[in-house]
Design a protein that fits this description.
It is built from 3 helices and no strands. Helices cover 79% and strands 0% of the residues. α1 packs antiparallel against α3. It has 86 residues and is mainly α.
């Protein structure tokens, strides 16, 4: 029996996880400089995001949207192929 996944539940979970992860990583980088190189790459991807306290909140929003949309599309495609390959 092949199982499908709930795209909304998966997207919410990943959106929240990536948003919180980016938020915490940014705050750590502001205080210590750790992970700065990685976060400077993220600056090139998310408009208005910078490694700063304000940027942590902008990253929270972008991280949620990115994680949500990307995961929703991935799970939708997974379910599509599960149904096609039955």
């Amino acid at each position: 029996m092949k199982t499908t996944l709930n795209p909304l539940a998966a997207a919410l979970a990943m959106g929240i996880a990536w948003a919180l992860g980016l938020f915490v990583m940014t705050l750590i980088a502001v205080q210590t400089g750790f992970m700065g190189n990685f976060l400077h790459l993220i600056e090139d991807v998310y408009p208005w995001y910078v490694v700063s306290s304000k940027g942590a909140f902008i990253g929270l929003i972008w991280g949620f949207m990115d994680g949500f949309v990307g995961t929703y599309i991935l799970v939708w495609l997974y379910n599509f192929f599960v149904k096609k390959l039955k």
